Amino acid sequence: MTAREAAASMADGPTPGDTTPTLVVIEKVLNWTTFARFGGSFFAGICEMVTFYPLDTVGKRLMFDSTKRAFRIDEKMRQMREAIFLHGRAAVQWSEPVSVIRSFYAGFLWAGVYKVSQRTWQFGSQPIFRELIDHSWPDVFHARFGHRLGDVLLSATAGALMGVGEIIFVPFNMLKIKSQMYNQDGPVLSLLSSGRIRMPDLWTGWTWTMARNVPGSFALFGGQEVARHWLFKQHDTSVVQHFAASMFGATCSILVASPFDVIKTRVQGEHFGQSKSGFVVARELVRNEGFLALLKGVTPKMLVIGPKLAYGMGLAQLLSAKLLGREGNR
């Protein structure tokens, strides 16, 4: 039953067997399809975390580094190496392979909770938001913007709404970033056990997390649909095309969200109780490092985080489709 049919039925008065739009929505959400989507996203989150976590650590350390980049390539590489190996904080002896490997997995405990939960929510709930929007307001997107552009805007809007909900995972992200910045889990665990971390401290930077997630998720899912409809000119794509479309969406997301991500990482990377306002961080960053500092780490993110995000997104959708026993991608 469509929303219009349900509305017409309700206008004529209730009759036996009638199903209201609310019940239709509940029936569409609480079913095997939902389980398959969240289940596929859960396993994809585990695979992504295990495979790409060291690259995530590298990206976070580059964004947190406040050194103004030099113009000479050799000097710039030296600065990046110092940022990655935490010179001046909890320095890593890059000549010791075991120390390097352990350093890149700092915060893995918190990442296990944060990243898997985030990906499960992100790729599991976006299709649900999409269906709820399309069911509740069927004429908003496709009737006004046409099939292709309507699909893009519908997926992007559902992604943006999903991005708002991601803030519930901010405390785990905070603990992950703290461990990555200072190369150890011990101090964070001791602060938690001693009660010296207040609950508000764990929510530091939640507004900037939302500022990053909403446009970033809008671009991620919208970009994937753009690639499907305009680059491949079809919605049901092959596996290779599916991952290529996911990569295009991930690239769009990184470019759009990078300035907010830099500010968020700076705010959350400071010691507990010493974080500054995001606007103060942004002002100091631009004044001391220039406007291009808002794109710090964007090149490594495009090279390594982009494929990581595309991998997680594509795998989640494909696994969900397999669990549903369908050949399509969604």
From TrEMBL:
Solcar repeats: 237-322
PROSITE patterns: SOLCAR (PS50920)
Subcellular location: Membrane
Membrane-protein topology: Multi-pass membrane protein
Pfam families hit by this protein: Mito_carr
UniProt keyword terms in alphabetical order: Membrane, Transmembrane, Transport
GO CC annotations, alphabetized: membrane; mitochondrion
Record's keyword annotation contains Transmembrane: yes
PANTHER family: MITOCHONDRIAL GTP/GDP CARRIER PROTEIN 1, MITOCHONDRIAL GTP_GDP CARRIER PROTEIN 1
Family to which this protein belongs: Belongs to the mitochondrial carrier (TC 2.A.29) family.
Protein's UniProt name: Mitochondrial carrier protein
Organism: Vitrella brassicaformis (strain CCMP3155)
